[in-house]
Every structure is written in C-alpha cells, then in structure tokens.
Write a structure and sequence with these properties.
By secondary structure, this protein is α/β, with parallel strands linked by helices. The protein contains ten helices and twelve strands. It has helices spanning 44-55, 70-73, 88-91, 103-109, 111-114, 125-130, 194-205, 224-244, 249-255, 273-290, and strands spanning 9-10, 15-17, 27-31, 34-38, 60-64, 84-87, 137-139, 143-147, 150-156, 165-169, 174-182, 211-216. The strands form two sheets. A seven-stranded mixed sheet has the order 1-2-3-4-5-6-7. Strands 8-9-10-11-12 form a five-stranded mixed sheet, with helices on one face. The termini are far apart. Bound molecules: zinc ion. Zinc ion binds at residues 67, 69, 160, 179, 188, 215.
C-alpha cells in the first residue's frame, strides 16, 4: 500500500494540522518530550499515516479528542497504545450505536469513495466495538496537561456537543477548537445547544492567541469567532421567526435553509447538504417549540 498524502501544514514550528481530508482537522503538537495528538483522521489509511507522521517526531504522549462526533474519534482505533484523554461528556457518547446518525455506518460510507485501500484495515463491527480506543483519562470541568516545555489547557466548551473541548497551547499562541468553529463551511447544529455554544465562543475569544485551528476548514485568526457567532445567531433567529409565524416543523425545514449563505459542506460530504439543512432547522424547531416560544398565542 502506498503512503497516502496527509496534506500536513505547519501552523507554527511545532503545530501540524491537515484541513484537506474528509473528516475533521486532525493535528499534533511536537514538544521537547514527545508529541500530543489532537483528534484522529476518520479515514483509516490516513489515521495510520498520521500516527506515523506524529511518531517521527517522538513518542505520542497523549491523544486528546475534542468531541464525540465520528469524524473526530473513529481513527482512535488505529492509535491503540496511546493514552486517550476524553471529557466525561465525550466519553459517555463515544461511538454511541444508538445515535441518530449511526457512527460506525457513517464512517464506513466514506470508504469506497475516499479510502478504498482501507478495506483490509477495518474490523467487523463487533470487533471494533470491543475496543474502539476511547478515553482512559476521563475528566469533568477543565484539565491541564504539561508535556515537555508545553502546556495543554483542555477547556470544557460545551455547545456543539456536551463534551466539547478546546485545547489551548499558550506557548504556540494557538487554540484547537474542534467544531466550536466550522471555518468557511456548513455548521452542523443537530446535537447542539446553541446558547451554550455562543458562551463557548466567548470563552475562546478571551484567549490570547494568534492561531485558531478549527474542527473543519482552513486555519483562522481569533476574529473568526465573530463569523461563527453570526452563523449561529442567523440560524436561531430564522427558526425562531418561523416558530413565531406558526410554521410547522415541515414548513420550517422547507423554508429555512442556508445552502448558499454559509459556504459548502466540508471536504467529501457535499451529499450531506440536505441532511444538514433539514436537521439543523428541524432540531432548532424542536428546541424552540419545547421552550414554549410558540405557546400562549
Ligand atoms: Zn462535530
């Protein structure tokens, strides 16, 4: 098997990320005492290659996942032996077979088109679930890891998901936000609490950083926090207005769409545009009506 390209880019001297693979933006940070990985490639051959790339700089001391969505954790399977650090809220949802979007099946959807050489690497479902390599260091609140001359502040920033983390590395003036930021691509809202998410963005805004490595799309400066906030406010306002007009769930899904306004779907997932639009609108409608916004009229 040939070594697949990862399209790695150096954000700083010590930060490596890739924003061009199907799945999230997996990354690693090199230190004076080994490497810290942040999220794993969803595509198995890229997970294997990413591990090798990281280990070429020294042993991987920790693998931190920023959220439980499959595109951030499926590749953990190919990082066995590395200590995995998960927030409790992430751990509790890790590859949950009862999720609305079956994570194992969704990961496999990508294989024929995006990673055909991975077929021999993929275990049967029951073998996978015996040990998908979830966290062994599991915490609530925030956690600080010190590795060599680097500090990793794991900040609990729920909103996009309950166990969401941002990883702040002050020595690199950088933060890895996971999907608290979707950069120049469509935002997935369905497992989210938008009000918490806006609070999470405010927490990230307080950091003294130059580099924002998002969950998806190109690296940004801290100013992009305002763009992401605007996307969240526009979605919420549009669905709140639909509820106020008495639109049904179906009418809201049909009429409230942001296909063109917020950019394409991230790499390889263009076919999910309707899924994103429908479920963003539908899940927000459910939450806003449950709160009673439409009652008492
Ligand atoms: Zn996500």
């Amino acid at each position: 098997m040939s070594t697949p390209s990862l399209h790695l880019e150096n954000v700083t001297l010590n930060i490596y990320t890739t924003t061009k693979l199907r799945g999230c933006n997996p990354s690693f940070v090199t230190t004076s005492d080994g490497v810290v990985s942040i999220d794993t490639p969803q595509l198995p051959t890229r997970a294997v290659a990413m591990r090798a790339a990281a280990e070429s700089h020294g042993p991987i001391r920790y693998l931190i996942n920023t959220e439980h969505h499959v595109d951030h954790i499926f590749g953990n399977y190919w990082f066995k032996g590395v200590p995995v650090v998960n927030h409790q809220g992430l751990y509790d949802n890790f590859m949950d077979p009862n999720a609305a979007l079956d994570p194992f099946a969704y990961a496999l959807e990508a294989i024929p088109t995006d990673d055909p050489e991975a077929a021999p690497l993929i275990p049967d479902r029951d073998v996978y679930y015996q040990d998908p390599n979830k966290g062994t260091i599991v915490f609530t609140g925030d956690l600080t890891l010190r590795v060599g001359d680097h500090t990793f502040h794991l900040l609990h920033t729920p909103g996009h998901t309950p166990g969401q983390l941002a990883v702040h590395v002050p020595e690199e003036r950088a933060v890895f936000t996971g999907d608290t930021i979707f950069s120049e691509c469509q935002t997935w809202l369905m497992t989210s609490n938008v009000d918490q998410w806006i609070e999470a963005l405010e927490r990230i805004r307080q950091l003294d950083v130059d580099h924002v490595i998002p969950g998806h799309g190109p690296v940004q400066s801290i100013a992009y926090v305002d763009t992401q906030r605007s996307v969240l406010f526009q979605w919420k306002a549009a669905v709140a207005e639909a509820v106020a007009k008495g639109w049904t769930r179906e009418e809201t899904i049909a009429r409230v769409r942001f296909d063109d306004a917020f950019g394409p779907v991230d790499v390889g997932q263009g076919y999910m545009m309707d899924h994103i639009q429908n479920n963003n609108a539908g899940s927000l409608w459910d939450k806003l009506t449950a709160l009673g916004y439409a009652k008492g009229r």
